[in-house]
Amino acid sequence: MSGSLRPDPSRWRQAASVVLAAGWTRPGTATQPSPPPPAEDFRLLLLQRSGRQGFMPGAHVFPGGVLDAADHSADWLDLFAPHHGPPRFGLGPAPVRCNAFPSLPNVAGDGNADSKWTLPEDVAFRICAVREAFEEAGVLLLRPRTSPPDPASGPGLALEPPPGLAAWRARVRRDPSHFLRLCEHLDCTPNIWALHDWSCWLTPFWRGGTRRFDTAFFLCCLREPPPVYPDLAEVVGFQWSSPSEATESFLSKEIWLAPPQFYEVRRLANFASLSDLQRFCLDRALEGRERWLPITLLTADATLQILPGDELYLEDSDFFENLMSTEKTEEIMKEGKQFHRIVIHSRHLYDIHVTVQSKYKHVYPKTSVLSKSHL
Ligand SMILES: CC(C)(COP(=O)(O)O)[C@@H](O)C(=O)NCCC(=O)NCCSC(=O)CC(=O)O
Ligand SMILES: Nc1ncnc2c1ncn2[C@@H]1O[C@H](COP(=O)(O)O)[C@@H](OP(=O)(O)O)[C@H]1O
Ligand SMILES: [Mg+2]
Protein backbone atom coordinates (compact mmCIF):
# COMPACT_ATOMS: atom_id res chain seq x y z
CA MET A 1 0.00 0.00 0.00
CA SER A 2 1.20 3.45 -0.61
CA GLY A 3 -0.24 6.68 0.72
CA SER A 4 0.70 9.34 -1.76
CA LEU A 5 0.22 9.89 -5.45
CA ARG A 6 2.95 9.76 -8.02
CA PRO A 7 4.95 12.97 -7.67
CA ASP A 8 4.48 15.33 -10.54
CA PRO A 9 4.35 18.83 -9.16
CA SER A 10 3.14 20.40 -12.37
CA ARG A 11 -0.10 18.44 -12.47
CA TRP A 12 -2.18 19.44 -9.47
CA ARG A 13 -3.84 22.82 -9.69
CA GLN A 14 -5.30 24.21 -6.51
CA ALA A 15 -8.73 25.67 -7.14
CA ALA A 16 -11.82 26.86 -5.29
CA SER A 17 -15.50 26.91 -6.23
CA VAL A 18 -18.54 28.40 -4.56
CA VAL A 19 -21.95 26.80 -4.70
CA LEU A 20 -24.32 29.77 -4.52
CA ALA A 21 -27.74 28.82 -3.13
CA ALA A 22 -30.25 31.67 -3.31
CA GLY A 23 -33.72 31.89 -1.81
CA TRP A 24 -36.40 31.93 -4.45
CA THR A 25 -39.92 33.24 -4.18
CA ARG A 26 -41.99 33.10 -7.28
CA PRO A 27 -44.94 35.48 -7.01
CA GLY A 28 -48.03 34.01 -8.67
CA THR A 29 -50.67 36.27 -10.21
CA ALA A 30 -54.41 35.70 -10.18
CA THR A 31 -54.65 35.82 -13.99
CA GLN A 32 -51.54 33.79 -14.75
CA PRO A 33 -51.15 30.85 -12.41
CA SER A 34 -47.48 29.92 -12.19
CA PRO A 35 -46.25 26.36 -12.75
CA PRO A 36 -45.83 24.23 -9.63
CA PRO A 37 -42.72 25.32 -7.72
CA PRO A 38 -39.74 22.96 -7.45
CA ALA A 39 -39.35 20.76 -4.39
CA GLU A 40 -36.73 23.10 -2.93
CA ASP A 41 -37.19 26.81 -2.08
CA PHE A 42 -33.70 27.75 -3.29
CA ARG A 43 -31.81 27.68 -6.54
CA LEU A 44 -28.20 27.12 -7.43
CA LEU A 45 -26.14 29.24 -9.78
CA LEU A 46 -24.80 27.16 -12.67
CA LEU A 47 -22.44 28.78 -15.14
CA GLN A 48 -21.97 27.44 -18.63
CA ARG A 49 -18.31 27.18 -19.60
CA SER A 50 -17.32 28.29 -23.06
CA GLY A 51 -16.99 25.58 -25.71
CA ARG A 52 -13.46 26.94 -26.21
CA GLN A 53 -12.30 26.03 -22.71
CA GLY A 54 -9.52 23.45 -22.64
CA PHE A 55 -11.09 21.66 -19.66
CA MET A 56 -14.75 20.61 -19.49
CA PRO A 57 -15.84 22.74 -22.47
CA GLY A 58 -19.55 23.57 -22.41
CA ALA A 59 -20.14 22.05 -18.96
CA HIS A 60 -22.29 23.74 -16.33
CA VAL A 61 -20.24 24.37 -13.19
CA PHE A 62 -20.31 26.39 -10.02
CA PRO A 63 -18.26 29.61 -10.19
CA GLY A 64 -14.62 28.81 -9.50
CA GLY A 65 -11.10 28.56 -10.73
CA VAL A 66 -7.45 28.29 -9.97
CA LEU A 67 -5.84 29.88 -6.93
CA ASP A 68 -3.64 32.86 -7.72
CA ALA A 69 -0.69 34.13 -5.68
CA ALA A 70 -2.71 37.33 -5.15
CA ASP A 71 -5.29 35.31 -3.17
CA HIS A 72 -2.80 34.70 -0.37
CA SER A 73 -0.90 37.96 -0.56
CA ALA A 74 0.12 39.66 2.70
CA ASP A 75 -1.58 42.80 1.36
CA TRP A 76 -4.95 41.40 2.49
CA LEU A 77 -3.88 41.76 6.13
CA ASP A 78 -4.39 45.55 6.09
CA LEU A 79 -7.81 45.22 4.50
CA PHE A 80 -9.07 42.75 7.13
CA ALA A 81 -7.57 44.78 10.02
CA PRO A 82 -8.49 46.00 12.56
CA HIS A 83 -11.50 43.68 13.02
CA HIS A 84 -10.03 40.48 11.64
CA GLY A 85 -6.60 39.00 11.40
CA PRO A 86 -4.39 35.99 12.05
CA PRO A 87 -4.65 33.29 12.97
CA ARG A 88 -8.30 32.66 11.99
CA PHE A 89 -9.67 35.95 10.63
CA GLY A 90 -12.89 35.38 12.58
CA LEU A 91 -13.59 32.04 10.89
CA GLY A 92 -13.90 30.20 14.20
CA PRO A 93 -11.79 27.25 15.32
CA ALA A 94 -9.82 25.48 12.62
CA PRO A 95 -11.80 22.50 11.31
CA VAL A 96 -10.41 19.06 11.99
CA ARG A 97 -8.62 17.65 8.98
CA CYS A 98 -10.98 14.95 7.82
CA ASN A 99 -8.81 12.63 5.78
CA ALA A 100 -5.09 12.24 5.42
CA PHE A 101 -5.44 10.18 2.26
CA PRO A 102 -4.56 10.84 -0.46
CA SER A 103 -1.66 13.11 0.30
CA LEU A 104 -0.59 15.13 -2.70
CA PRO A 105 3.15 15.17 -3.19
CA ASN A 106 3.04 18.73 -4.44
CA VAL A 107 0.77 21.16 -6.17
CA ALA A 108 1.28 23.70 -8.93
CA GLY A 109 2.64 27.08 -7.88
CA ASP A 110 3.57 27.47 -4.26
CA GLY A 111 2.69 24.00 -3.14
CA ASN A 112 0.61 23.28 -0.11
CA ALA A 113 2.75 25.66 1.85
CA ASP A 114 0.64 27.08 4.63
CA SER A 115 3.97 27.81 6.28
CA LYS A 116 5.07 29.95 3.32
CA TRP A 117 1.77 31.78 3.04
CA THR A 118 0.87 34.81 5.07
CA LEU A 119 -2.82 34.02 4.93
CA PRO A 120 -4.16 30.69 6.16
CA GLU A 121 -5.23 28.29 3.43
CA ASP A 122 -8.85 28.57 4.65
CA VAL A 123 -8.87 32.31 3.99
CA ALA A 124 -6.93 32.23 0.71
CA PHE A 125 -9.23 29.61 -0.85
CA ARG A 126 -12.29 31.62 0.15
CA ILE A 127 -10.80 34.76 -1.40
CA CYS A 128 -10.11 32.76 -4.56
CA ALA A 129 -13.73 31.54 -4.76
CA VAL A 130 -15.08 35.07 -4.15
CA ARG A 131 -12.76 36.53 -6.80
CA GLU A 132 -13.75 33.87 -9.33
CA ALA A 133 -17.46 34.54 -8.70
CA PHE A 134 -16.78 38.18 -9.53
CA GLU A 135 -14.63 37.44 -12.60
CA GLU A 136 -16.94 34.86 -14.09
CA ALA A 137 -20.40 36.01 -13.01
CA GLY A 138 -20.01 39.63 -11.83
CA VAL A 139 -21.32 38.57 -8.40
CA LEU A 140 -19.71 40.39 -5.47
CA LEU A 141 -19.65 38.33 -2.29
CA LEU A 142 -18.33 41.22 -0.22
CA ARG A 143 -19.30 42.88 3.04
CA PRO A 144 -18.56 46.33 4.42
CA ARG A 145 -15.32 46.36 6.43
CA THR A 146 -16.95 48.00 9.41
CA SER A 147 -19.91 45.64 9.81
CA PRO A 148 -19.09 42.47 11.75
CA PRO A 149 -20.40 39.16 10.38
CA ASP A 150 -23.40 37.81 12.26
CA PRO A 151 -24.15 34.15 11.50
CA ALA A 152 -27.42 34.38 13.48
CA SER A 153 -28.84 36.87 11.00
CA GLY A 154 -29.34 34.17 8.33
CA PRO A 155 -28.44 34.31 4.65
CA GLY A 156 -27.14 37.67 3.48
CA LEU A 157 -27.06 39.47 0.16
CA ALA A 158 -24.41 40.00 -2.48
CA LEU A 159 -23.17 43.56 -2.87
CA GLU A 160 -24.77 45.71 -5.58
CA PRO A 161 -22.50 45.82 -8.62
CA PRO A 162 -20.44 49.05 -8.56
CA PRO A 163 -20.48 51.59 -11.39
CA GLY A 164 -17.77 50.62 -13.85
CA LEU A 165 -18.21 46.90 -13.15
CA ALA A 166 -16.97 45.92 -16.61
CA ALA A 167 -13.76 47.94 -16.31
CA TRP A 168 -13.04 46.57 -12.84
CA ARG A 169 -13.68 43.06 -14.04
CA ALA A 170 -11.35 43.46 -17.01
CA ARG A 171 -8.63 44.68 -14.64
CA VAL A 172 -9.12 41.77 -12.22
CA ARG A 173 -9.14 39.24 -15.06
CA ARG A 174 -5.88 40.71 -16.36
CA ASP A 175 -4.28 40.81 -12.94
CA PRO A 176 -6.02 39.16 -9.94
CA SER A 177 -4.24 41.50 -7.52
CA HIS A 178 -6.71 44.17 -8.69
CA PHE A 179 -9.41 42.34 -6.74
CA LEU A 180 -7.86 43.68 -3.54
CA ARG A 181 -7.84 47.18 -5.10
CA LEU A 182 -11.56 46.81 -5.87
CA CYS A 183 -12.27 45.76 -2.28
CA GLU A 184 -10.31 48.77 -0.99
CA HIS A 185 -12.21 51.03 -3.36
CA LEU A 186 -15.56 49.69 -2.06
CA ASP A 187 -14.32 49.63 1.58
CA CYS A 188 -15.32 45.97 1.77
CA THR A 189 -13.69 42.62 2.45
CA PRO A 190 -14.46 39.33 0.71
CA ASN A 191 -17.27 37.82 2.76
CA ILE A 192 -15.18 34.82 3.80
CA TRP A 193 -17.55 34.16 6.73
CA ALA A 194 -20.47 33.41 4.42
CA LEU A 195 -18.54 30.64 2.64
CA HIS A 196 -18.97 27.32 4.43
CA ASP A 197 -16.74 24.30 3.98
CA TRP A 198 -18.63 21.82 1.87
CA SER A 199 -16.42 19.33 -0.03
CA CYS A 200 -13.21 18.91 -1.94
CA TRP A 201 -12.75 16.99 -5.20
CA LEU A 202 -9.59 15.82 -6.90
CA THR A 203 -9.84 15.24 -10.64
CA PRO A 204 -9.73 11.47 -11.20
CA PHE A 205 -7.08 9.85 -13.34
CA TRP A 206 -8.09 9.67 -16.98
CA ARG A 207 -6.01 8.45 -19.87
CA GLY A 208 -4.74 11.50 -21.74
CA GLY A 209 -6.07 13.81 -19.01
CA THR A 210 -3.29 16.28 -18.37
CA ARG A 211 -5.09 18.71 -16.07
CA ARG A 212 -5.90 17.75 -12.55
CA PHE A 213 -7.49 20.02 -10.00
CA ASP A 214 -7.60 19.95 -6.23
CA THR A 215 -10.81 21.94 -5.80
CA ALA A 216 -12.30 23.17 -2.53
CA PHE A 217 -16.07 23.60 -2.76
CA PHE A 218 -17.71 26.16 -0.48
CA LEU A 219 -21.40 26.69 0.05
CA CYS A 220 -22.84 30.20 0.33
CA CYS A 221 -26.51 30.94 1.04
CA LEU A 222 -27.96 34.21 -0.22
CA ARG A 223 -31.40 35.55 0.69
CA GLU A 224 -32.14 36.29 -2.97
CA PRO A 225 -30.38 35.73 -6.29
CA PRO A 226 -28.08 38.57 -7.29
CA PRO A 227 -27.94 39.75 -10.90
CA VAL A 228 -25.50 37.66 -12.92
CA TYR A 229 -23.33 39.01 -15.71
CA PRO A 230 -21.47 36.17 -17.43
CA ASP A 231 -18.07 37.36 -18.64
CA LEU A 232 -18.89 35.99 -22.13
CA ALA A 233 -15.34 34.67 -22.39
CA GLU A 234 -14.81 31.79 -19.97
CA VAL A 235 -18.52 31.72 -19.20
CA VAL A 236 -21.15 32.06 -21.92
CA GLY A 237 -24.40 31.57 -20.02
CA PHE A 238 -25.97 30.80 -16.67
CA GLN A 239 -29.07 29.44 -15.01
CA TRP A 240 -30.54 29.39 -11.54
CA SER A 241 -31.92 25.91 -10.91
CA SER A 242 -33.14 24.11 -7.84
CA PRO A 243 -31.41 20.75 -7.28
CA SER A 244 -34.40 18.91 -8.78
CA GLU A 245 -34.53 21.28 -11.78
CA ALA A 246 -30.77 20.91 -12.37
CA THR A 247 -31.13 17.12 -12.26
CA GLU A 248 -33.94 17.26 -14.79
CA SER A 249 -31.97 19.61 -17.08
CA PHE A 250 -29.06 17.18 -16.98
CA LEU A 251 -31.16 14.08 -17.65
CA SER A 252 -33.01 15.79 -20.48
CA LYS A 253 -29.65 16.79 -22.03
CA GLU A 254 -30.19 20.55 -21.74
CA ILE A 255 -27.02 20.85 -19.70
CA TRP A 256 -24.02 18.65 -18.99
CA LEU A 257 -22.64 18.24 -15.48
CA ALA A 258 -19.36 16.53 -14.60
CA PRO A 259 -19.73 13.84 -11.93
CA PRO A 260 -18.64 16.03 -8.97
CA GLN A 261 -21.15 18.75 -9.83
CA PHE A 262 -23.90 16.16 -10.35
CA TYR A 263 -23.07 14.54 -7.02
CA GLU A 264 -23.26 17.91 -5.25
CA VAL A 265 -26.56 18.77 -6.92
CA ARG A 266 -28.00 15.45 -5.74
CA ARG A 267 -26.60 15.99 -2.26
CA LEU A 268 -28.30 19.40 -2.11
CA ALA A 269 -31.63 17.77 -3.02
CA ASN A 270 -31.74 16.68 0.64
CA PHE A 271 -32.69 20.20 1.64
CA ALA A 272 -36.19 21.54 1.15
CA SER A 273 -35.38 25.02 2.36
CA LEU A 274 -32.55 27.52 2.32
CA SER A 275 -32.83 28.00 6.07
CA ASP A 276 -32.32 24.24 6.62
CA LEU A 277 -29.29 24.34 4.39
CA GLN A 278 -27.81 27.37 6.15
CA ARG A 279 -28.37 25.78 9.58
CA PHE A 280 -26.80 22.54 8.38
CA CYS A 281 -23.67 24.40 7.21
CA LEU A 282 -23.30 26.22 10.53
CA ASP A 283 -23.82 22.99 12.52
CA ARG A 284 -21.00 21.21 10.73
CA ALA A 285 -18.56 24.13 10.64
CA LEU A 286 -16.01 22.29 12.77
CA GLU A 287 -15.96 19.25 10.49
CA GLY A 288 -14.31 20.93 7.51
CA ARG A 289 -14.28 19.26 4.13
CA GLU A 290 -13.19 15.78 3.11
CA ARG A 291 -10.98 15.55 0.05
CA TRP A 292 -12.15 12.86 -2.35
CA LEU A 293 -10.30 11.35 -5.25
CA PRO A 294 -12.60 9.04 -7.23
CA ILE A 295 -11.11 5.81 -8.55
CA THR A 296 -12.13 5.14 -12.13
CA LEU A 297 -13.28 1.62 -12.91
CA LEU A 298 -14.22 0.68 -16.48
CA THR A 299 -16.80 -2.04 -16.85
CA ALA A 300 -17.94 -3.66 -20.09
CA ASP A 301 -20.87 -1.23 -20.30
CA ALA A 302 -20.19 1.79 -18.06
CA THR A 303 -17.62 3.83 -16.16
CA LEU A 304 -17.69 3.77 -12.39
CA GLN A 305 -16.29 6.41 -10.09
CA ILE A 306 -15.62 4.74 -6.78
CA LEU A 307 -15.68 7.03 -3.74
CA PRO A 308 -14.32 6.66 -0.20
CA GLY A 309 -16.25 4.16 1.91
CA ASP A 310 -17.13 1.93 -1.04
CA GLU A 311 -15.91 -1.65 -0.70
CA LEU A 312 -13.89 -1.25 -3.91
CA TYR A 313 -12.17 1.92 -2.67
CA LEU A 314 -8.65 0.86 -1.82
CA GLU A 315 -6.23 3.42 -0.50
CA ASP A 316 -3.44 2.50 -2.83
CA SER A 317 -2.01 5.00 -5.27
CA ASP A 318 -1.79 2.33 -8.01
CA PHE A 319 -5.56 2.51 -8.31
CA PHE A 320 -5.55 6.27 -8.63
CA GLU A 321 -3.04 6.41 -11.41
CA ASN A 322 -4.36 3.60 -13.58
CA LEU A 323 -7.64 2.68 -15.17
CA MET A 324 -9.03 -0.63 -14.01
CA SER A 325 -11.36 -2.81 -16.02
CA THR A 326 -13.84 -5.43 -14.97
CA GLU A 327 -16.94 -7.35 -16.02
CA LYS A 328 -20.44 -5.94 -16.65
CA THR A 329 -21.76 -3.35 -14.22
CA GLU A 330 -24.72 -5.50 -13.25
CA GLU A 331 -22.38 -8.31 -12.19
CA ILE A 332 -20.28 -6.19 -9.88
CA MET A 333 -23.35 -4.48 -8.43
CA LYS A 334 -24.90 -7.89 -7.70
CA GLU A 335 -21.77 -9.05 -5.92
CA GLY A 336 -21.34 -6.00 -3.71
CA LYS A 337 -23.04 -4.49 -0.65
CA GLN A 338 -21.12 -1.47 0.52
CA PHE A 339 -21.57 1.19 -2.12
CA HIS A 340 -20.45 4.75 -2.54
CA ARG A 341 -20.12 5.11 -6.28
CA ILE A 342 -21.27 6.99 -9.33
CA VAL A 343 -22.19 4.78 -12.26
CA ILE A 344 -21.79 6.66 -15.53
CA HIS A 345 -24.01 4.80 -18.00
CA SER A 346 -23.76 7.46 -20.66
CA ARG A 347 -23.03 11.16 -20.99
CA HIS A 348 -26.40 12.11 -19.51
CA LEU A 349 -27.21 9.21 -17.28
CA TYR A 350 -25.44 8.82 -13.96
CA ASP A 351 -26.68 6.72 -11.06
CA ILE A 352 -25.36 7.38 -7.59
CA HIS A 353 -25.39 4.30 -5.36
CA VAL A 354 -24.87 4.95 -1.66
CA THR A 355 -25.40 2.36 1.04
CA VAL A 356 -22.78 3.64 3.49
CA GLN A 357 -23.39 6.06 6.34
CA SER A 358 -22.21 9.61 5.72
CA LYS A 359 -19.28 10.83 7.79
CA TYR A 360 -18.32 14.11 9.43
CA LYS A 361 -21.92 15.26 9.89
CA HIS A 362 -22.31 15.54 6.13
CA VAL A 363 -25.13 14.23 4.03
CA TYR A 364 -24.91 11.90 1.02
CA PRO A 365 -27.10 12.15 -2.09
CA LYS A 366 -30.77 11.65 -1.49
CA THR A 367 -31.80 9.51 -4.42
CA SER A 368 -29.36 6.75 -5.03
CA VAL A 369 -30.72 5.48 -8.33
CA LEU A 370 -32.40 7.70 -10.88
CA SER A 371 -35.10 6.67 -13.29
CA LYS A 372 -34.03 4.50 -16.19
CA SER A 373 -36.82 6.05 -18.25
CA HIS A 374 -34.29 8.57 -19.46
CA LEU A 375 -32.17 5.93 -21.14
C1 LIG B 1 -11.83 22.51 -12.31
C2 LIG B 1 -12.83 23.64 -12.23
C3 LIG B 1 -13.89 23.49 -13.30
C4 LIG B 1 -12.10 24.96 -12.36
O1 LIG B 1 -11.52 25.05 -13.65
P1 LIG B 1 -11.10 26.46 -14.34
O2 LIG B 1 -9.88 26.95 -13.68
O3 LIG B 1 -12.28 27.36 -14.20
O4 LIG B 1 -10.85 26.10 -15.76
C5 LIG B 1 -13.46 23.53 -10.90
O5 LIG B 1 -14.38 24.57 -10.77
C6 LIG B 1 -14.16 22.22 -10.67
O6 LIG B 1 -15.30 22.11 -10.95
N1 LIG B 1 -13.49 21.22 -10.08
C7 LIG B 1 -14.14 19.98 -9.69
C8 LIG B 1 -13.22 18.83 -9.72
C9 LIG B 1 -12.95 18.37 -11.10
O7 LIG B 1 -11.83 18.27 -11.50
N2 LIG B 1 -13.99 18.05 -11.85
C10 LIG B 1 -13.85 17.48 -13.14
C11 LIG B 1 -14.06 16.06 -13.06
S1 LIG B 1 -13.86 15.43 -14.66
C12 LIG B 1 -14.49 13.88 -14.52
O8 LIG B 1 -14.99 13.54 -13.51
C13 LIG B 1 -14.36 12.99 -15.70
C14 LIG B 1 -15.46 13.19 -16.68
O9 LIG B 1 -15.33 14.08 -17.53
O10 LIG B 1 -16.42 12.43 -16.62
N1 LIG C 1 -12.25 33.83 -23.87
C1 LIG C 1 -12.00 32.64 -23.35
N2 LIG C 1 -12.47 31.51 -23.92
C2 LIG C 1 -12.19 30.32 -23.41
N3 LIG C 1 -11.41 30.12 -22.33
C3 LIG C 1 -10.91 31.20 -21.73
C4 LIG C 1 -11.18 32.50 -22.17
N4 LIG C 1 -10.54 33.37 -21.36
C5 LIG C 1 -9.91 32.62 -20.43
N5 LIG C 1 -10.11 31.33 -20.64
C6 LIG C 1 -9.57 30.19 -19.90
O1 LIG C 1 -10.18 30.06 -18.62
C7 LIG C 1 -9.27 29.45 -17.72
C8 LIG C 1 -9.18 30.30 -16.46
O2 LIG C 1 -10.14 29.84 -15.60
P1 LIG C 1 -10.12 30.25 -14.05
O3 LIG C 1 -9.71 31.68 -13.95
O4 LIG C 1 -11.52 30.01 -13.67
O5 LIG C 1 -9.15 29.34 -13.39
C9 LIG C 1 -7.92 29.40 -18.43
O6 LIG C 1 -7.78 28.09 -18.90
P2 LIG C 1 -6.42 27.30 -18.79
O7 LIG C 1 -6.33 26.87 -17.37
O8 LIG C 1 -6.63 26.22 -19.76
O9 LIG C 1 -5.35 28.28 -19.20
C10 LIG C 1 -8.11 30.40 -19.55
O10 LIG C 1 -7.29 30.10 -20.67
MG1 LIG D 1 -13.39 28.95 -13.79
From TrEMBL:
It comes from Callithrix jacchus (White-tufted-ear marmoset). GO terms for biological process: butyryl-CoA catabolic process; coenzyme A catabolic process; malonyl-CoA catabolic process; medium-chain fatty-acyl-CoA catabolic process; propionyl-CoA metabolic process; succinyl-CoA catabolic process. The gene is NUDT19. Fatty acyl-coenzyme A (CoA) diphosphatase that hydrolyzes fatty acyl-CoA to yield acyl-4'-phosphopantetheine and adenosine 3',5'-bisphosphate. Mediates the hydrolysis of a wide range of CoA esters, including choloyl-CoA and branched-chain fatty-acyl-CoA esters and at low substrate concentrations medium and long-chain fatty-acyl-CoA esters are the primary substrates. Highest activity seen with medium-chain acyl-CoA esters and higher rates of activity seen with the unsaturated acyl-CoA esters compared with the saturated esters. Exhibits decapping activity towards dpCoA-capped RNAs in vitro. It catalyses: (6Z)-octenoyl-CoA + H2O = S-(6Z-octenoyl)-4'-phosphopantetheine + adenosine 3',5'-bisphosphate + 2 H(+); malonyl-CoA + H2O = malonyl-4'-phosphopantetheine + adenosine 3',5'-bisphosphate + 2 H(+); CoA + H2O = (R)-4'-phosphopantetheine + adenosine 3',5'-bisphosphate + 2 H(+); dodecanoyl-CoA + H2O = S-dodecanoyl-4'-phosphopantetheine + adenosine 3',5'-bisphosphate + 2 H(+). Belongs to the Nudix hydrolase family. This is Acyl-coenzyme A diphosphatase NUDT19. It is an enzyme of class 3 (hydrolase). Its EC number is 3.6.1.77. It comes from the Eukaryota. Its cofactor is Mn(2+); Mg(2+). GO terms for molecular function: coenzyme A diphosphatase activity; magnesium ion binding. The lineage of its organism: Eukaryota, Metazoa, Chordata, Craniata, Vertebrata. GO terms for cellular component: mitochondrion. Keywords: Hydrolase, Magnesium, Manganese, Metal-binding.
